[in-house]
Design brief:
It comes from Volvox reticuliferus. Helix content is 46%, strand content 7%. The protein has helices at 15-22, 55-63, 65-68, 103-112, 125-131, 151-158, 171-186, 194-207, 211-220, 226-237, 245-251, 255-265, 277-282, 284-296, 302-309, 329-356, 375-380; strands spanning 28-30, 45-49, 139-140, 163-168, 272-276, 360-362, 382-384. It has a five-stranded parallel β-sheet with strand order 3-2-4-5-6, sandwiched between helices. Strands 1-7 form a two-stranded parallel ribbon. Bound molecules: 2-acetamido-2-deoxy-beta-D-glucopyranose.
């Protein structure tokens, strides 16, 4: 499969890092710190995206019986056969005026997560949380959460200390593979090629009043201005064009804006791990070693290592050469330029800032990111116990 190429031109410089590197000084980053899992973190862990970024495979790696029920596992297990995508936090109908979740919604969420206290009566609920909640971990792997502007705020009302994993895949490739998934696995868009959908997406941006200025505003936020980026995404995701699956297919690739909302409202030091999907696909054992340390604060068990080493990363959709499933060179170019402006230009600045804020990182040290501004500085920084 052809990776889209980003020229990543432009003048982004991580000033301090670049200056220090020129002087030959080592740049130190903080050590990644394990944070204990809180009994009232519901769920314990969320995998918030991105679709086609490896979320299903990661979910399997964490919940498969061979690791989950391993007698030598020191941590509480996940429920057996949990549903992967409860989706409650980004469900339609949740708006700012009803941001405070009501008890029935909380209980419904516990049920969707197969939480040990979901069946507790009102009278025994607190006792159950004190005694039984710690006996099991819970996991919500809904890969559309990351681009929901309400999900992080809604989650904060339920649980302020859950851990989060975000997987990031090249945005052009992500859109293409997700389109294939919808066509081949779900029978969507029998008469529309991916070129048709991309062309309609760009039309929709220019048709709905206010979208172009909102995108321009987002692009002109300074890279480190989380509030500006988060506000911009809140505006963009409020437009009607974001209601259609077709447009979301492309708009959800705008990680840099969408994650700003999570950074602003939810992320906590030591409780966020950002995973490069491409590195996960190629080096799953290394990736899982990091995930296990992030999640449990320990080395991998034998069973976890065996599972991560066996088979390739599970992907639902086979690669195909049907022309409608592949972007034509001009449309690919148009999408690449769109993402280059809105994502790639500031991506490594975002990753560096998040790392400074205590997020864990895996990958982002090779293709397809190596031409992006800030790549070298990001990867040259060394770990220390500052
Ligand atoms: C805790 O779990 C046990 C066994 O699963 C159950 O019998 C007990 O009623 C639960 N306690 C509460 C307070 O719900």
């Amino acid at each position: 499969m052809k990776l889209s190429k980003y020229k990543c031109r432009g003048a982004f410089i991580a000033t301090v890092l670049a200056a220090a590197l020129r002087l030959g000084l080592s740049v130190f980053i903080k050590e990644e710190v394990f944070m204990p899992n809180q009994p009232d973190a519901v769920p314990t862990l969320l995998i918030i995206g991105t679709a086609k970024g490896g979320t299903t495979d990661l979910f399997e790696q964490l919940t498969a019986g061979i690791v989950n029920l391993d007698p030598s596992r020191p941590d509480p297990p996940f429920p057996q056969k949990p549903s992967k995508e409860p989706g409650l936090l980004s469900r339609g109908g949740v708006d700012a005026s009803e941001m405070l979740p009501k008890r029935p919604q909380y209980i419904e969420y516990l049920r969707l997560l197969s939480h040990p206290c979901s069946e507790a009566t009102k009278g025994s609920f607190h006792e159950c949380m004190a005694t039984n909640a710690t006996k099991q971990y819970t996991l919500d792997a809904t890969p559309t959460y990351f681009f929901s502007a309400v999900a992080p705020q809604y989650l904060r009302q339920f649980s302020s200390l859950s851990k989060i994993i975000m997987m990031i895949r090249d945005p052009v490739e992500r859109a293409e593979v997700l389109y294939r998934h919808f066509v081949l696995a779900e029978g969507q868009w029998p008469d529309q090629s991916i070129d048709d959908l991309a062309t309609d997406f760009f039309k929709a941006i220019h048709t709905e009043e206010g979208v172009v200025p909102a995108l321009q505003r987002a692009a002109s936020c300074s890279y480190g201005d989380v509030v500006c980026l988060a506000d911009s995404w809140r505006d963009i995701s409020g437009f009607t064009f974001m209601d259609s699956l077709e447009n979301k297919l492309f708009a959800a690739g705008l990680y840099r804006y969408a994650l700003a909302v999570w950074r602003y409202h939810y992320f906590k030091p030591g409780r966020v791990l950002v995973v490069d999907s491409h590195a996960f696909f190629e080096r799953r054992v290394d990736a899982m070693e990091k995930v296990i340390r992030f999640l449990y604060g320990r080395p991998m068990l034998h069973s976890e290592r065996m599972l991560a080493a066996s088979g390739g990363v599970w992907r639902k959709v086979v690669v195909t050469s049907l022309p409608k499933l592949t972007l034509s060179p001009p449309v690919r170019q148009q999408l690449s330029e769109f993402y280059e402006q809105h994502v790639m230009q500031g991506l490594f600045r975002m990753l560096s800032d998040m790392r400074d804020e205590g997020a864990w990182m895996f990958g982002f040290d090779g293709e397809p990111w190596n031409e992006c501004p800030g790549f070298k500085e990001f990867n040259a920084a060394r770990k220390s116990k500052l």
